Amino acid sequence: MSARKFGLNLVMVVAVASLFTGLWAWYNQPLSAPDWPEQISGYSFSPFRLHQNPQQAHYPSEDEVRADLELVAAQTDSIRTYSVDGVLGEIPRLAEESGLRVTLGIWISNDLAANEWQIEKGIEIARRERSVVRVIVGNEALFREEVSAEQMAGYLDRVRSALKVPVTTAEQWHIWEKYPELARHVDLIAAHVLPYWEFIPQEQSVDYVLQRARELKKTFPKKPLLLAEVGWPSNGRAQGRAEANQADQALYLRKLVNALNGNGYKYFIIEAFDQPWKASDEGSVGAYWGVFNAERQMKFPMTGPVVEIPQWRLLASASGVLALLALALLMIDGSALRQRGRTFLTIIAFLVATMLVWIAYDFSQQYANWFSITVGLLLALGALGVMIVLLTEAHELAETVWKRQRQRPFLPVTGDSGYRPKVSVHVPCYNEPPGMVIQTLDALSRLDYADFEVLVIDNNTRDPEVWEPLQAHCEKLGPRFRFFHVAPLAGFKGGALNYALQHTAADAEIIAVIDSDYCVAPEWLKQMAPHFADPHIAVVQSPQDYRDEQESLFKKLCYCEYKGFFHIGMVTRNDRDAIIQHGTMTMTRRSVLDELKWAEWCITEDAELGLRIFEKGLSAAYSEHSFGKGLMPDTFIDFKKQRFRWAYGAIQIIKRHLSSLLLGKGSQLKRGQRYHFIAGWLPWIADGLNIFFTFGALLWSAAMIIVPNRVDPPLMLFALPPLALFLFKLGKILFLYRRAVGVRMRDAIAAAIAGLALSHTIAKAVLYGFATRSIPFFRTPKMRSNHGLLVALNEAREEVFIMLLLWGAALGISLTQKQGGLDVLFWIIVLLVQSLPYLAALIMALLSARPRLAAHEDKLPD
């Protein structure tokens, strides 16, 4: 690389790194707020730590409570409790040691017997402990509708008559306005004002609290006012414009406590410590109301500016290092890329690295249990996998669009060439329509090549009326054509080709293979065989092509989808000598085949052979020029079966050659070859993993519908990576098909629909591939009659079922999640986007039945 080019690259990388660092800085601009005062009015005090839960009777020890009391005593002289169960009943005694006054809570619920016990115990503690300065009977019991106003009035009167300290009940502010008669039964008004739950943005919340306080004092002028709960969560779902994050918590509380102190209000901040156990009742946000986290660390600075992510500089540095590592891998052999391509890959590398670091940070802020740790590890692996696929997709796009020139072009040899080796053309067939195969043989008979033979191998076809016409036609075409009917013959297509290899003419130097539906061009061998003059070339490959794309809209979509691989993927792979050998229009050096043979254990024996050839250090040549055209599947089920076989075979190959692909062990594979074989199959593996995401999304959505008040939408990090990959792949298809393949936008959209329709099939093939060793080979039927609507729907029944489940989940969430919010809307969008591949499958199934339906409609009476 020249010094000038290195300098340009360095400037570009520094510029992009500065841009992303600037984005981190912009997101974390310092915001001003009043300093935390030396003393606050009080804290709601629940001393439960990680993995402690009052609902499971798992309480902290007295020493743990003492430590918590000493911590809050540095900021206040007053605390509020909620229950007298277990060690909670000992808090007043322990609080006195720290000089704290206690507002004692008595828990009231719909369990009347438990209420009786709580009241008796609470009265006993309040009489005994001097630290108790007031008693709160019930916490939002009326709001939860667990007791009536009359019952609550009776409880209050009973406790007031038994004690000398003030007694009240704590309710949300609007409950006091709904039941003003309660004021006759209390000594003070204890109201909760929590703007977050009322969808009030942080910027307006302090004024909102002060306004509610003024209204309560006006409504109950003769009763003292206690703001029994004021606070803001640091994590969890948004409530409209009310965001739950650490910065908003810091800004709100620092402004609020100063305002309340200045106006002389008594209040309790909910709460001193995060309470992870509350997530089961209040959703994930319930765990994050503490000023201290569950490890008893202050969650935000008490003085100075507030930023969204205090550690943003460290995170920006980590994302920069990760981006540079990814970029170093992407830029291997990248000297042929134009500057725009290198800039594009740099931006993608920094974007992916930033997303990964942000996801890791966001997840690190969640409280973990065995379930969340398990999900977190799966999520981390899934996110890493998705980002790797995203990088490989971006790399292919860059090499397709911004390469100066192709590095290994293999153009057809149109002039005279002294090298004209003998070619043996092998045509395997099984139960194929005789008329179709005869067309293939007739095309071979017109080859403009001096020295070739044709071997037709019909393996295991039972019906003589299918294979005997082919035998007769070969005899008619002359001695160049030899026909073999073998039954039984093991090994599927690989077995048939190995059988043909045994009967190949001794002087044949090249073995060519075509499928039985392919009509080759007369110049095929003449223009491609001379490439074997290079002794390192072991494979010469031409693209698969098709001649029936105009027969139906279904086949038009299939045709558009096929073109992407042969005119984008194979071209970029050829530059690094890493093409996928496919089983038609392929030519292989005879000596190499004699040594390696076709693999009979693999249902994609062609691709497997090509990889073994590369492992031996030999090369392949690929020409984009089409020399033969075959027939596409006639039905959607056959289209799916073909792709299932390709994907399943890919996993078979990965499993067999894993050490070679990952480590280069026992092979002569170059880095570029290993990269393309792994990167080329990663999107299929991603489709396989996507099944688990869909399954998890449906389970999570079901929980949101069944218990909408307890289950929040998933965190953004659960859905962002697969959604980002989907959108990128879709955009890439639409862009590349127009730019590299040269098709119209509607054809690019057609390719996207056909490709999406295969996602579920590929996913199943990948999972089957990893779970099983082999499956029977199945051919792709050609020239099969079209079928009716019901049959077409049956072909997509799995996809339709999953699509309806996803649509039902989206509808159910929209109906049950009454409070809505951006997180709910985002999750609904994720479910709908997740359904698009299944909708595409339904469209393809219906289109495959369209000709039959049209013909039927033409016969309807007027």
Just give the CATH class of the largest domain.
Alpha Beta
Quaternary structure type: single chain
End-to-end gap: 75 Å
Helical/strand content category: alpha/beta
Extended strand count: 17
Strand content: 5-15%
Description:
There is one protein chain. It is built from 28 helices and 17 strands. The model is unreliable at 852-862 (pLDDT under 50). An 8-stranded parallel beta sheet has the order 1-2-3-4-5-6-7-8. A 7-stranded mixed beta sheet has the order 11-10-9-12-15-14-16, with helices on both faces. A two-stranded antiparallel sheet has the order 13-17. Helix 17 packs across helix 28 (822-858) and helix 22 (671-706) crosses helix 27 (797-816). The chain folds into 4 domains: 3-27 and 314-401, no CATH class; 43-287, TIM Barrel (Alpha-Beta Barrel); 423-640, Spore Coat Polysaccharide Biosynthesis Protein SpsA, Chain A, CATH 3.90.550.10; 685-858, no CATH class. 53% of the residues lie in helices and 9% in strands. Helix 7 links the parallel strand 6 (189-192) and strand 7. The termini are far apart. The radius of gyration is 36 Å and the shape is elongated. It is α/β, with parallel strands linked by helices.
Quick structural summary:
The chain is of the alpha/beta class. The protein folds into four domains: 113 residues, no CATH class; 245 residues, TIM Barrel; 218 residues, Alpha-Beta Complex (Spore Coat Polysaccharide Biosynthesis Protein SpsA, Chain A); 174 residues, no CATH class.
